[in-house]
Amino acid sequence: MTDEIPAIDLEAALAEDAPADLLLRVREAAERIGLIQVVNHGVPLELIEDFERRVERVLRLPRPEKAKLASPTGHPFRGWRQWPDDLGRLELERYSVGQFDNPADAAAAGVSERWLGLYKHGNVWPPEDPDLRGVTFAYAKAAVVLAQRVLGLYERLLGLPAGSFPDAEPHHINMIVNDYPTWTYPDTVAEEEKLLLLEHTDGSAVTILHQHGEYSGLQAQQADGTWIPVPVVPGALQVFSGTILTRWTNGLFRPVRHRVVAGGSATRQSTGIFYHPSLDTVLEPLPAFVGEDGTEFEPVVLGEIDETNVENYLKVFGRPEQVAAWREGRPFVSELAETSAGR
Ligand SMILES: O=C(O)CCC(=O)C(=O)O
Ligand SMILES: [Fe+2]
Q: Which intervals hold domain Fe2OG dioxygenase (predicted)?
């Protein structure tokens, strides 16, 4: 079996006497593709499954009920949302959660006053499931512990003292559930023509992903440009390197480029927790990685990137009605074609 995307036992890799070849595989993957899968990762599977069952129930509600869960202010990364393609065919349905429900909660957790405005666009919790909020935050918390452990492993692989990657509190996270529909259009089209999520890298330090479904729709790009599927390994979580890790290592650790292709009659869901250090953090390469050639990465404050996220996103992907809803601070629900009826 190939080792393009190693699936590793995290406890074994973190052990004092971790096998050298295991550590080598992880380091090699971090430099080559930016993606590993982990088992024995410490995030309770019952918690992941409980969370996914609850979200699934929400996503199977009748559309008028789901429409009530759209962000009241049209924020693209809060609440429920559907993404149709140019023909109105549903490509992706998302439920997104921010780290705090409102600026007061963020302030109480120690977020600097300067960034509190980011939390003016609240989360949207379904009244049908009063426990979803608690389960969501419990899952996010467990994923944060995992993210920090993997970053600790990466420090070790790089010969850095523990704590070299900035990890000031309160760290910053976002959470997304992706629900991909079946794709009932002719099966003969090239994969490029049935992308449900376009290729991208994540702006996190690392992203913790759980994929759940009947086929390996997630693909990662290799250095030569070819795409390989990320196998569905029962119980495993995927750890994506994001662009912050790349910046810290001055380009040594690659951010994984990834995309999602349709699977014919099969469905798939994923949950991503995007982990970052505190919004106050100045992101820049660690001195250990800056040689005589210097660096092309300019220092940047994470909170300043976050403040421009929505505008940047809408500039590229926003449809006119969606942009108008955001400008006017009202909810937005996409029109869908007949072919996507039932969602
Ligand atoms: O669905 C997936 O597996 C990938 C999702 C993803 O890349 C994202 O939400 O950023
Ligand atoms: Fe992603």
A: 169-277
